[in-house]
Amino acid sequence: MAQERSLPSVVERMWGREPVTRRGPRPRLDLAKIAAAAIEIADAEGLAGVSMASVASRVGVAATALYRYVGSKEDLLTVMADSAAPLPPEPAGMPWRDYLALWTRAHRDVLLDHPWLLSVGRLVPPMGPRRLLWLDRALAALDGTGLDDGEKINVASALTGYALTEAALVHSVGGGDPQMEEAGITGAGDYGEVLAGVLDPETYPSLSAALRSGALGGAEGWVDDEDFSFGLDLLLDGVEALIRRRGA
Amino acid sequence: MAQERSLPSVVERMWGREPVTRRGPRPRLDLAKIAAAAIEIADAEGLAGVSMASVASRVGVAATALYRYVGSKEDLLTVMADSAAPLPPEPAGMPWRDYLALWTRAHRDVLLDHPWLLSVGRLVPPMGPRRLLWLDRALAALDGTGLDDGEKINVASALTGYALTEAALVHSVGGGDPQMEEAGITGAGDYGEVLAGVLDPETYPSLSAALRSGALGGAEGWVDDEDFSFGLDLLLDGVEALIRRRGA
DNA sequence: TTAAAACTATGAACGTCATACACAGTACGC
DNA sequence: GCGTACTGTGTATGACGTTCATAGTTTTAA
Question: To bridge B147 with a disulfide, which of A59, B46, B112, B151 should be the other Cys (CB 3.0-4.6 Å)?
Fold first, then answer.
Protein backbone atom coordinates (compact mmCIF):
# COMPACT_ATOMS: atom_id res chain seq x y z
CA MET A 1 0.00 0.00 0.00
CA ALA A 2 2.87 2.32 0.69
CA GLN A 3 4.33 0.98 -2.51
CA GLU A 4 1.32 1.57 -4.64
CA ARG A 5 2.57 4.97 -5.65
CA SER A 6 5.95 5.16 -7.23
CA LEU A 7 7.92 7.15 -9.69
CA PRO A 8 7.22 6.60 -13.35
CA SER A 9 9.40 3.64 -14.14
CA VAL A 10 11.88 5.45 -16.34
CA VAL A 11 12.28 8.08 -13.72
CA GLU A 12 13.19 5.39 -11.24
CA ARG A 13 16.00 4.42 -13.54
CA MET A 14 17.17 8.01 -13.70
CA TRP A 15 17.64 7.83 -9.97
CA GLY A 16 19.96 4.90 -10.31
CA ARG A 17 17.36 2.30 -9.58
CA GLU A 18 18.72 0.10 -12.30
CA PRO A 19 17.67 -3.52 -12.23
CA VAL A 20 19.55 -5.64 -9.70
CA THR A 21 19.90 -9.01 -11.34
CA ARG A 22 23.29 -9.50 -12.87
CA ARG A 23 22.80 -12.35 -15.18
CA GLY A 24 23.05 -12.54 -18.89
CA PRO A 25 25.19 -10.33 -21.06
CA ARG A 26 26.34 -7.01 -19.68
CA PRO A 27 24.23 -4.16 -21.05
CA ARG A 28 26.17 -2.19 -23.62
CA LEU A 29 24.31 1.00 -22.80
CA ASP A 30 22.79 2.94 -19.98
CA LEU A 31 20.28 5.74 -19.76
CA ALA A 32 22.96 8.40 -19.60
CA LYS A 33 24.58 7.34 -22.85
CA ILE A 34 21.26 7.16 -24.62
CA ALA A 35 20.15 10.52 -23.31
CA ALA A 36 23.44 12.11 -24.29
CA ALA A 37 23.12 10.84 -27.83
CA ALA A 38 19.53 11.99 -28.10
CA ILE A 39 20.43 15.42 -26.77
CA GLU A 40 23.24 15.81 -29.25
CA ILE A 41 20.85 15.06 -32.06
CA ALA A 42 18.22 17.41 -30.71
CA ASP A 43 20.76 20.19 -30.35
CA ALA A 44 21.91 19.72 -33.90
CA GLU A 45 18.70 18.98 -35.77
CA GLY A 46 15.91 19.80 -33.38
CA LEU A 47 13.42 17.45 -31.83
CA ALA A 48 12.29 16.35 -35.25
CA GLY A 49 15.63 14.69 -35.80
CA VAL A 50 15.24 12.56 -32.70
CA SER A 51 13.81 9.21 -33.66
CA MET A 52 14.35 5.87 -32.04
CA ALA A 53 16.30 4.89 -35.12
CA SER A 54 18.54 7.94 -35.18
CA VAL A 55 19.34 7.76 -31.49
CA ALA A 56 20.01 4.06 -31.68
CA SER A 57 22.30 4.36 -34.65
CA ARG A 58 24.25 7.08 -32.90
CA VAL A 59 24.99 4.82 -29.96
CA GLY A 60 25.62 1.93 -32.29
CA VAL A 61 22.75 -0.43 -31.62
CA ALA A 62 19.60 -1.43 -33.42
CA ALA A 63 16.57 0.75 -32.94
CA THR A 64 14.69 -1.79 -30.91
CA ALA A 65 17.50 -2.24 -28.43
CA LEU A 66 16.55 1.05 -26.84
CA TYR A 67 13.38 -0.51 -25.52
CA ARG A 68 15.48 -2.37 -22.97
CA TYR A 69 16.14 1.00 -21.34
CA VAL A 70 13.09 3.12 -22.03
CA GLY A 71 9.53 1.97 -22.34
CA SER A 72 8.64 4.35 -25.10
CA LYS A 73 9.77 7.43 -26.90
CA GLU A 74 7.84 9.51 -24.40
CA ASP A 75 10.09 8.04 -21.76
CA LEU A 76 13.12 9.00 -23.73
CA LEU A 77 11.94 12.59 -23.84
CA THR A 78 11.43 12.56 -20.10
CA VAL A 79 14.98 11.48 -19.59
CA MET A 80 16.29 14.03 -22.06
CA ALA A 81 14.44 16.82 -20.32
CA ASP A 82 16.21 16.10 -17.08
CA SER A 83 19.69 15.29 -18.23
CA ALA A 84 19.94 18.29 -20.52
CA ALA A 85 20.19 20.47 -17.43
CA PRO A 86 23.73 21.21 -16.30
CA LEU A 87 24.60 21.63 -12.65
CA PRO A 88 23.00 24.72 -11.12
CA PRO A 89 25.23 27.70 -10.34
CA GLU A 90 27.05 27.60 -7.03
CA PRO A 91 25.61 29.74 -4.24
CA ALA A 92 28.99 30.71 -2.79
CA GLY A 93 27.43 32.69 -0.01
CA MET A 94 25.66 35.23 -2.14
CA PRO A 95 22.69 37.18 -0.84
CA TRP A 96 19.46 35.45 -1.86
CA ARG A 97 18.54 38.06 -4.39
CA ASP A 98 21.80 37.92 -6.27
CA TYR A 99 21.74 34.18 -6.36
CA LEU A 100 18.16 33.90 -7.56
CA ALA A 101 18.89 36.42 -10.31
CA LEU A 102 21.86 34.36 -11.39
CA TRP A 103 19.84 31.19 -11.08
CA THR A 104 16.99 32.42 -13.21
CA ARG A 105 19.32 33.74 -15.88
CA ALA A 106 21.18 30.45 -15.98
CA HIS A 107 17.88 28.67 -16.17
CA ARG A 108 16.91 30.69 -19.19
CA ASP A 109 20.27 30.08 -20.79
CA VAL A 110 19.84 26.34 -20.48
CA LEU A 111 16.61 26.65 -22.40
CA LEU A 112 18.29 28.73 -25.06
CA ASP A 113 21.13 26.26 -25.38
CA HIS A 114 18.61 23.48 -25.89
CA PRO A 115 15.63 25.15 -27.51
CA TRP A 116 13.91 21.84 -28.08
CA LEU A 117 13.32 21.74 -24.32
CA LEU A 118 10.66 24.34 -24.95
CA SER A 119 8.70 21.86 -27.04
CA VAL A 120 9.11 18.98 -24.64
CA GLY A 121 6.25 19.15 -22.24
CA ARG A 122 7.81 17.29 -19.37
CA LEU A 123 9.46 20.24 -17.66
CA VAL A 124 7.22 20.76 -14.67
CA PRO A 125 7.01 19.26 -12.19
CA PRO A 126 10.67 18.33 -12.02
CA MET A 127 11.17 14.67 -11.27
CA GLY A 128 14.73 13.86 -12.21
CA PRO A 129 17.91 14.39 -10.23
CA ARG A 130 19.19 17.34 -12.22
CA ARG A 131 16.17 19.56 -12.23
CA LEU A 132 15.46 18.81 -8.60
CA LEU A 133 18.96 19.91 -7.81
CA TRP A 134 18.14 23.24 -9.37
CA LEU A 135 15.04 23.45 -7.25
CA ASP A 136 17.01 22.59 -4.16
CA ARG A 137 19.50 25.39 -4.77
CA ALA A 138 16.76 27.95 -5.20
CA LEU A 139 15.17 26.87 -1.94
CA ALA A 140 18.53 26.95 -0.21
CA ALA A 141 19.07 30.52 -1.33
CA LEU A 142 15.94 31.49 0.54
CA ASP A 143 17.01 29.94 3.81
CA GLY A 144 17.02 32.46 6.57
CA THR A 145 14.63 34.82 4.88
CA GLY A 146 11.72 33.87 7.05
CA LEU A 147 9.69 32.42 4.21
CA ASP A 148 8.11 29.07 4.89
CA ASP A 149 8.78 26.12 2.63
CA GLY A 150 5.61 26.48 0.64
CA GLU A 151 6.40 30.07 -0.07
CA LYS A 152 9.90 29.24 -1.16
CA ILE A 153 8.59 26.69 -3.59
CA ASN A 154 6.17 29.17 -4.98
CA VAL A 155 8.93 31.67 -5.53
CA ALA A 156 11.01 29.10 -7.37
CA SER A 157 7.99 28.20 -9.41
CA ALA A 158 7.35 31.76 -10.46
CA LEU A 159 10.97 32.26 -11.42
CA THR A 160 10.94 29.08 -13.45
CA GLY A 161 7.91 30.27 -15.31
CA TYR A 162 9.56 33.53 -16.08
CA ALA A 163 12.69 31.88 -17.41
CA LEU A 164 10.56 29.67 -19.59
CA THR A 165 8.51 32.40 -21.16
CA GLU A 166 11.47 34.62 -21.80
CA ALA A 167 13.38 31.80 -23.40
CA ALA A 168 10.46 30.93 -25.61
CA LEU A 169 10.18 34.53 -26.66
CA VAL A 170 13.83 35.02 -27.42
CA HIS A 171 14.01 31.80 -29.30
CA SER A 172 10.99 32.17 -31.53
CA VAL A 173 11.30 35.84 -32.26
CA GLY A 174 15.04 35.98 -32.12
CA GLY A 175 15.69 33.35 -34.73
CA GLY A 176 15.78 29.61 -34.81
CA ASP A 177 12.08 29.02 -35.04
CA PRO A 178 11.39 27.34 -38.37
CA GLN A 179 7.90 28.75 -38.80
CA MET A 180 9.15 32.24 -38.12
CA GLU A 181 12.08 31.89 -40.45
CA GLU A 182 9.84 30.71 -43.23
CA ALA A 183 8.17 34.09 -42.92
CA GLY A 184 11.43 35.95 -42.80
CA ILE A 185 11.04 37.08 -39.23
CA THR A 186 14.47 37.16 -37.68
CA GLY A 187 14.15 39.65 -34.88
CA ALA A 188 11.74 41.39 -32.58
CA GLY A 189 11.70 44.32 -34.95
CA ASP A 190 10.45 42.17 -37.78
CA TYR A 191 7.86 40.70 -35.53
CA GLY A 192 6.50 44.06 -34.53
CA GLU A 193 6.58 45.33 -38.08
CA VAL A 194 4.67 42.40 -39.44
CA LEU A 195 2.15 42.57 -36.65
CA ALA A 196 1.54 46.24 -37.20
CA GLY A 197 0.52 45.43 -40.74
CA VAL A 198 -2.33 43.17 -39.70
CA LEU A 199 -3.68 44.67 -36.53
CA ASP A 200 -6.88 46.65 -36.65
CA PRO A 201 -6.28 49.58 -34.27
CA GLU A 202 -9.94 49.56 -33.29
CA THR A 203 -9.99 46.07 -31.86
CA TYR A 204 -6.43 46.16 -30.64
CA PRO A 205 -6.04 49.75 -29.46
CA SER A 206 -3.39 49.35 -26.80
CA LEU A 207 -1.35 46.83 -28.70
CA SER A 208 -1.36 48.99 -31.81
CA ALA A 209 -0.21 51.93 -29.76
CA ALA A 210 2.60 49.88 -28.32
CA LEU A 211 3.66 48.80 -31.78
CA ARG A 212 3.55 52.36 -33.09
CA SER A 213 5.68 53.54 -30.21
CA GLY A 214 8.22 51.00 -31.34
CA ALA A 215 8.21 48.99 -28.15
CA LEU A 216 8.99 45.95 -30.26
CA GLY A 217 10.51 47.80 -33.09
CA GLY A 218 14.17 48.41 -32.63
CA ALA A 219 17.31 46.61 -31.75
CA GLU A 220 16.18 46.95 -28.17
CA GLY A 221 13.07 44.90 -28.63
CA TRP A 222 11.08 42.53 -26.58
CA VAL A 223 13.95 40.29 -26.20
CA ASP A 224 17.13 41.87 -25.05
CA ASP A 225 18.85 41.48 -21.79
CA GLU A 226 17.60 44.70 -20.30
CA ASP A 227 14.06 43.47 -20.67
CA PHE A 228 14.92 40.21 -19.06
CA SER A 229 16.40 41.94 -16.04
CA PHE A 230 13.44 44.22 -15.89
CA GLY A 231 10.90 41.46 -15.51
CA LEU A 232 13.17 39.57 -13.21
CA ASP A 233 13.52 42.54 -10.89
CA LEU A 234 9.78 42.83 -10.94
CA LEU A 235 9.52 39.39 -9.48
CA LEU A 236 12.36 39.79 -7.05
CA ASP A 237 10.91 43.05 -5.84
CA GLY A 238 7.78 41.13 -5.03
CA VAL A 239 9.76 38.55 -3.14
CA GLU A 240 11.66 41.22 -1.29
CA ALA A 241 8.45 42.91 -0.24
CA LEU A 242 7.16 39.61 1.06
CA ILE A 243 10.30 38.95 3.02
CA ARG A 244 10.08 42.37 4.61
CA ARG A 245 6.49 41.69 5.51
CA ARG A 246 7.53 38.45 7.16
CA GLY A 247 9.94 40.52 9.20
CA ALA A 248 13.09 38.50 8.78
CA MET B 1 11.41 44.73 -49.81
CA ALA B 2 8.84 45.86 -47.32
CA GLN B 3 7.00 42.74 -48.35
CA GLU B 4 9.85 40.39 -47.82
CA ARG B 5 8.77 39.78 -44.29
CA SER B 6 5.31 38.48 -43.70
CA LEU B 7 3.35 36.35 -41.35
CA PRO B 8 3.72 32.60 -41.59
CA SER B 9 1.24 31.74 -44.27
CA VAL B 10 -1.25 29.91 -42.10
CA VAL B 11 -1.22 32.78 -39.70
CA GLU B 12 -2.16 35.07 -42.56
CA ARG B 13 -5.21 32.95 -43.09
CA MET B 14 -6.10 33.18 -39.43
CA TRP B 15 -6.29 36.91 -39.93
CA GLY B 16 -8.87 36.54 -42.62
CA ARG B 17 -6.44 36.82 -45.47
CA GLU B 18 -8.18 34.01 -47.30
CA PRO B 19 -7.43 33.68 -50.98
CA VAL B 20 -9.30 36.14 -53.20
CA THR B 21 -10.06 34.22 -56.34
CA ARG B 22 -13.61 32.97 -56.42
CA ARG B 23 -13.55 30.30 -59.02
CA GLY B 24 -14.05 26.60 -58.80
CA PRO B 25 -16.17 24.82 -56.24
CA ARG B 26 -16.99 26.62 -53.04
CA PRO B 27 -14.75 25.39 -50.23
CA ARG B 28 -16.69 23.18 -47.86
CA LEU B 29 -14.48 24.12 -44.95
CA ASP B 30 -12.59 26.96 -43.42
CA LEU B 31 -9.83 27.22 -40.88
CA ALA B 32 -12.27 27.83 -38.05
CA LYS B 33 -14.22 24.63 -38.67
CA ILE B 34 -11.06 22.59 -38.93
CA ALA B 35 -9.58 24.10 -35.81
CA ALA B 36 -12.80 23.54 -33.89
CA ALA B 37 -12.85 19.87 -34.85
CA ALA B 38 -9.20 19.42 -33.95
CA ILE B 39 -9.72 21.12 -30.61
CA GLU B 40 -12.67 18.91 -29.77
CA ILE B 41 -10.57 15.86 -30.43
CA ALA B 42 -7.64 17.19 -28.42
CA ASP B 43 -9.93 18.01 -25.50
CA ALA B 44 -11.38 14.53 -25.56
CA GLU B 45 -8.39 12.36 -26.35
CA GLY B 46 -5.36 14.56 -25.97
CA LEU B 47 -2.97 15.71 -28.63
CA ALA B 48 -2.17 12.11 -29.49
CA GLY B 49 -5.68 11.71 -30.85
CA VAL B 50 -5.23 14.54 -33.28
CA SER B 51 -4.15 13.19 -36.61
CA MET B 52 -4.84 14.56 -40.02
CA ALA B 53 -7.08 11.57 -40.58
CA SER B 54 -9.07 11.95 -37.37
CA VAL B 55 -9.61 15.66 -37.84
CA ALA B 56 -10.60 15.21 -41.45
CA SER B 57 -13.07 12.47 -40.69
CA ARG B 58 -14.66 14.60 -38.02
CA VAL B 59 -15.35 17.38 -40.49
CA GLY B 60 -16.39 14.87 -43.11
CA VAL B 61 -13.66 15.06 -45.71
CA ALA B 62 -10.72 12.94 -46.74
CA ALA B 63 -7.50 13.38 -44.85
CA THR B 64 -5.69 15.03 -47.69
CA ALA B 65 -8.36 17.67 -48.18
CA LEU B 66 -7.04 19.49 -45.13
CA TYR B 67 -3.93 20.40 -47.02
CA ARG B 68 -5.98 22.91 -48.97
CA TYR B 69 -6.21 24.89 -45.73
CA VAL B 70 -3.07 24.15 -43.79
CA GLY B 71 0.35 23.49 -45.17
CA SER B 72 1.24 20.87 -42.61
CA LYS B 73 0.22 19.43 -39.30
CA GLU B 74 2.49 21.95 -37.61
CA ASP B 75 0.34 24.61 -39.16
CA LEU B 76 -2.75 22.98 -37.79
CA LEU B 77 -1.29 23.09 -34.30
CA THR B 78 -0.50 26.76 -34.72
CA VAL B 79 -4.09 27.46 -35.59
CA MET B 80 -5.36 25.34 -32.73
CA ALA B 81 -3.16 27.16 -30.25
CA ASP B 82 -4.74 30.45 -31.15
CA SER B 83 -8.34 29.52 -31.59
CA ALA B 84 -8.53 27.53 -28.38
CA ALA B 85 -8.38 30.82 -26.50
CA PRO B 86 -11.75 32.31 -25.61
CA LEU B 87 -12.29 36.03 -25.49
CA PRO B 88 -10.34 37.69 -22.68
CA PRO B 89 -12.26 38.91 -19.63
CA GLU B 90 -13.84 42.34 -19.92
CA PRO B 91 -12.03 45.18 -18.15
CA ALA B 92 -15.21 46.97 -17.07
CA GLY B 93 -13.32 49.79 -15.48
CA MET B 94 -11.49 47.75 -12.91
CA PRO B 95 -8.28 48.96 -11.30
CA TRP B 96 -5.31 47.55 -13.14
CA ARG B 97 -4.36 45.18 -10.38
CA ASP B 98 -7.75 43.56 -10.11
CA TYR B 99 -7.98 43.14 -13.82
CA LEU B 100 -4.55 41.64 -14.23
CA ALA B 101 -5.27 39.19 -11.45
CA LEU B 102 -8.47 38.19 -13.17
CA TRP B 103 -6.69 38.04 -16.50
CA THR B 104 -3.91 35.81 -15.27
CA ARG B 105 -6.32 33.48 -13.55
CA ALA B 106 -8.44 33.24 -16.66
CA HIS B 107 -5.31 32.60 -18.65
CA ARG B 108 -4.41 29.71 -16.43
CA ASP B 109 -7.92 28.34 -16.64
CA VAL B 110 -7.78 28.28 -20.41
CA LEU B 111 -4.68 26.14 -20.16
CA LEU B 112 -6.38 23.82 -17.71
CA ASP B 113 -9.43 23.51 -19.91
CA HIS B 114 -7.19 22.55 -22.82
CA PRO B 115 -4.21 20.86 -21.23
CA TRP B 116 -2.82 19.86 -24.59
CA LEU B 117 -1.96 23.53 -25.08
CA LEU B 118 0.86 22.92 -22.63
CA SER B 119 2.45 20.48 -25.05
CA VAL B 120 1.99 22.65 -28.11
CA GLY B 121 5.02 24.82 -28.38
CA ARG B 122 3.52 27.63 -30.37
CA LEU B 123 2.26 29.71 -27.47
CA VAL B 124 4.74 32.55 -27.42
CA PRO B 125 5.00 34.87 -29.14
CA PRO B 126 1.32 35.25 -29.82
CA MET B 127 0.60 35.70 -33.50
CA GLY B 128 -3.09 34.99 -33.95
CA PRO B 129 -6.06 37.25 -33.38
CA ARG B 130 -7.25 35.64 -30.17
CA ARG B 131 -4.07 35.60 -28.18
CA LEU B 132 -3.15 39.06 -29.33
CA LEU B 133 -6.49 40.24 -28.05
CA TRP B 134 -5.53 38.90 -24.66
CA LEU B 135 -2.27 40.77 -24.88
CA ASP B 136 -4.07 43.94 -25.88
CA ARG B 137 -6.34 43.77 -22.86
CA ALA B 138 -3.45 43.35 -20.49
CA LEU B 139 -1.73 46.36 -21.97
CA ALA B 140 -4.93 48.36 -21.81
CA ALA B 141 -5.27 47.59 -18.12
CA LEU B 142 -1.94 49.29 -17.55
CA ASP B 143 -2.90 52.50 -19.33
CA GLY B 144 -2.49 55.47 -17.07
CA THR B 145 -0.05 53.78 -14.75
CA GLY B 146 2.92 55.65 -16.12
CA LEU B 147 4.60 52.53 -17.44
CA ASP B 148 5.96 52.77 -20.94
CA ASP B 149 4.90 50.33 -23.62
CA GLY B 150 7.93 48.13 -23.31
CA GLU B 151 7.40 47.80 -19.60
CA LYS B 152 3.76 46.92 -20.08
CA ILE B 153 4.67 44.19 -22.46
CA ASN B 154 7.19 42.82 -20.03
CA VAL B 155 4.59 42.73 -17.32
CA ALA B 156 2.19 40.84 -19.54
CA SER B 157 4.97 38.49 -20.47
CA ALA B 158 5.83 37.70 -16.88
CA LEU B 159 2.19 37.09 -16.02
CA THR B 160 1.82 34.79 -19.00
CA GLY B 161 4.80 32.79 -17.87
CA TYR B 162 3.36 32.46 -14.43
CA ALA B 163 0.01 31.24 -15.72
CA LEU B 164 1.80 28.71 -17.86
CA THR B 165 3.94 27.22 -15.15
CA GLU B 166 1.12 27.02 -12.67
CA ALA B 167 -1.13 25.35 -15.18
CA ALA B 168 1.55 22.83 -16.05
CA LEU B 169 2.03 22.09 -12.38
CA VAL B 170 -1.63 21.68 -11.57
CA HIS B 171 -2.18 19.53 -14.58
CA SER B 172 0.69 17.11 -14.22
CA VAL B 173 0.63 16.76 -10.49
CA GLY B 174 -3.08 17.18 -10.07
CA GLY B 175 -4.13 14.45 -12.43
CA GLY B 176 -4.55 14.07 -16.12
CA ASP B 177 -0.94 13.47 -16.95
CA PRO B 178 -0.62 9.96 -18.34
CA GLN B 179 2.93 9.39 -17.16
CA MET B 180 2.03 10.47 -13.65
CA GLU B 181 -1.08 8.37 -13.58
CA GLU B 182 0.84 5.32 -14.66
CA ALA B 183 2.82 5.79 -11.46
CA GLY B 184 -0.28 6.34 -9.36
CA ILE B 185 0.48 9.96 -8.60
CA THR B 186 -2.81 11.77 -8.41
CA GLY B 187 -2.08 14.74 -6.22
CA ALA B 188 0.62 16.98 -4.90
CA GLY B 189 0.72 14.87 -1.77
CA ASP B 190 1.58 11.77 -3.74
CA TYR B 191 4.20 13.68 -5.59
CA GLY B 192 5.90 14.85 -2.43
CA GLU B 193 5.68 11.45 -0.82
CA VAL B 194 7.22 9.68 -3.75
CA LEU B 195 9.94 12.27 -4.05
CA ALA B 196 10.81 12.01 -0.39
CA GLY B 197 11.49 8.34 -0.93
CA VAL B 198 14.22 8.94 -3.48
CA LEU B 199 15.92 12.10 -2.39
CA ASP B 200 19.22 11.91 -0.67
CA PRO B 201 19.07 14.58 2.07
CA GLU B 202 22.77 15.26 1.70
CA THR B 203 22.66 16.36 -1.91
CA TYR B 204 19.21 17.87 -1.68
CA PRO B 205 19.19 19.39 1.79
CA SER B 206 16.71 22.21 1.35
CA LEU B 207 14.34 20.26 -0.82
CA SER B 208 14.30 17.36 1.61
CA ALA B 209 13.55 19.75 4.42
CA ALA B 210 10.68 21.21 2.46
CA LEU B 211 9.31 17.78 1.80
CA ARG B 212 9.61 16.77 5.43
CA SER B 213 7.79 19.91 6.46
CA GLY B 214 4.98 18.77 4.27
CA ALA B 215 5.07 21.74 1.96
CA LEU B 216 3.88 19.46 -0.79
CA GLY B 217 2.34 16.93 1.42
CA GLY B 218 -1.22 17.72 2.24
CA ALA B 219 -4.43 18.71 0.67
CA GLU B 220 -2.99 22.18 0.56
CA GLY B 221 -0.14 21.28 -1.68
CA TRP B 222 1.79 22.97 -4.36
CA VAL B 223 -1.17 23.39 -6.45
CA ASP B 224 -4.14 24.90 -4.76
CA ASP B 225 -5.66 28.25 -5.34
CA GLU B 226 -4.05 29.89 -2.37
CA ASP B 227 -0.67 29.15 -3.80
CA PHE B 228 -1.66 30.53 -7.12
CA SER B 229 -2.78 33.79 -5.59
CA PHE B 230 0.36 33.91 -3.56
CA GLY B 231 2.69 33.84 -6.52
CA LEU B 232 0.46 36.14 -8.44
CA ASP B 233 0.51 38.74 -5.69
CA LEU B 234 4.24 38.41 -5.67
CA LEU B 235 4.34 39.53 -9.25
CA LEU B 236 1.73 42.20 -8.87
CA ASP B 237 3.52 43.60 -5.84
CA GLY B 238 6.53 43.98 -8.04
CA VAL B 239 4.49 45.79 -10.64
CA GLU B 240 2.96 47.99 -8.05
CA ALA B 241 6.35 48.95 -6.69
CA LEU B 242 7.46 49.84 -10.17
CA ILE B 243 4.43 51.98 -10.80
CA ARG B 244 5.02 53.83 -7.57
CA ARG B 245 8.59 54.42 -8.57
CA ARG B 246 7.45 55.85 -11.87
CA GLY B 247 5.30 58.24 -9.87
CA ALA B 248 1.98 57.76 -11.56
C1' DT C 1 32.12 -29.18 -16.10
C1' DT C 2 27.84 -28.77 -17.68
C1' DA C 3 23.05 -27.36 -18.11
C1' DA C 4 19.56 -24.41 -17.09
C1' DA C 5 18.17 -19.74 -16.33
C1' DA C 6 18.19 -14.85 -17.00
C1' DC C 7 19.05 -11.36 -19.69
C1' DT C 8 20.66 -8.69 -24.07
C1' DA C 9 20.53 -7.24 -28.83
C1' DT C 10 18.64 -8.28 -33.48
C1' DG C 11 15.77 -8.37 -37.66
C1' DA C 12 11.63 -8.82 -39.68
C1' DA C 13 6.95 -7.41 -39.56
C1' DC C 14 2.87 -4.46 -38.55
C1' DG C 15 0.03 -0.54 -38.10
C1' DT C 16 -0.16 4.33 -38.11
C1' DC C 17 0.81 8.53 -39.80
C1' DA C 18 2.08 12.70 -42.60
C1' DT C 19 2.38 13.88 -47.02
C1' DA C 20 2.81 13.95 -52.48
C1' DC C 21 0.51 13.44 -56.69
C1' DA C 22 -2.54 12.60 -60.41
C1' DC C 23 -7.28 12.83 -61.26
C1' DA C 24 -12.22 13.89 -61.27
C1' DG C 25 -15.68 17.02 -60.41
C1' DT C 26 -17.47 21.93 -59.89
C1' DA C 27 -18.30 26.80 -60.23
C1' DC C 28 -17.18 31.21 -62.22
C1' DG C 29 -15.61 34.49 -66.25
C1' DC C 30 -15.68 35.16 -70.88
C1' DG D 1 -20.85 26.92 -73.50
C1' DC D 2 -15.82 26.56 -73.01
C1' DG D 3 -11.74 27.07 -70.59
C1' DT D 4 -9.82 27.91 -66.28
C1' DA D 5 -8.98 27.69 -61.64
C1' DC D 6 -10.04 25.66 -57.76
C1' DT D 7 -11.82 21.78 -54.43
C1' DG D 8 -12.00 17.11 -52.70
C1' DT D 9 -10.67 11.97 -53.54
C1' DG D 10 -7.85 7.79 -53.88
C1' DT D 11 -3.79 5.80 -54.08
C1' DA D 12 0.88 5.45 -52.97
C1' DT D 13 5.04 6.13 -50.30
C1' DG D 14 8.32 6.52 -46.88
C1' DA D 15 9.23 7.22 -42.07
C1' DC D 16 8.36 5.99 -37.66
C1' DG D 17 7.03 3.64 -33.08
C1' DT D 18 6.49 -0.64 -31.37
C1' DT D 19 5.88 -5.95 -31.01
C1' DC D 20 7.69 -10.43 -31.13
C1' DA D 21 10.21 -14.50 -31.89
C1' DT D 22 14.98 -15.64 -32.06
C1' DA D 23 19.86 -16.02 -31.44
C1' DG D 24 23.55 -15.04 -28.57
C1' DT D 25 25.82 -14.23 -23.86
C1' DT D 26 26.80 -14.39 -19.15
C1' DT D 27 25.83 -16.11 -14.60
C1' DT D 28 24.10 -19.47 -11.29
C1' DA D 29 23.35 -24.09 -9.76
C1' DA D 30 24.03 -28.91 -10.11
Answer: B151
